[in-house]
Predict the 3D structure of the following.
Amino acid sequence: RDDPVFQPPRLLQCNFTVSFPRVVTMRRLANTFEDTLARLAPGQYGQPNVTPVNDQADPKAPRIIFAAAHGLGQIIASQMALALTVNWPGPWQNEPDRCRQFMLERAPLLFTLLQQAEGVHPHFCGMTATMRLTSSRPAGDPAPLHHLAQRLGLAVAPDGLHGVQTKIVRVRDESFFDNI
């Protein structure tokens, strides 16, 4: 049904991340990762950009970056995570099923890359989606935030409402968490 307050949402970006114990020598895997991507995803990723960050520096800092040949995103390797980030072009932003399929096809690459770091296993993985929810109301109108809060089941007064944020967590199979 049509929503009188919001225009249809648009999917702007997806980020799929695999976290693991620190691999201090991550940057040394750049050539191995390049060969793996060339074999499993030929023509999809270019040469690695190895960042000049000391191995003892912040383990969350990117060490290896592979830009996607199609320009949609990149694969980033730090000493503690591998991430596939995709910025959706205009036509894709209204096609969540197409974006979902794209991510499902490429996410396994991160697990294959992680296997190249011998003896390292993932701690957890997750995906974050960034969406734009544009109001059809004039700027400064508090009605969109109040409407959103109501739709999310939040009991708040509309006076002075400046932002709305919520997090929903479900436990699956007693060990997996869905953060919505």
In short: The chain has a mean pLDDT of 87. The chain has three helices and eight strands.
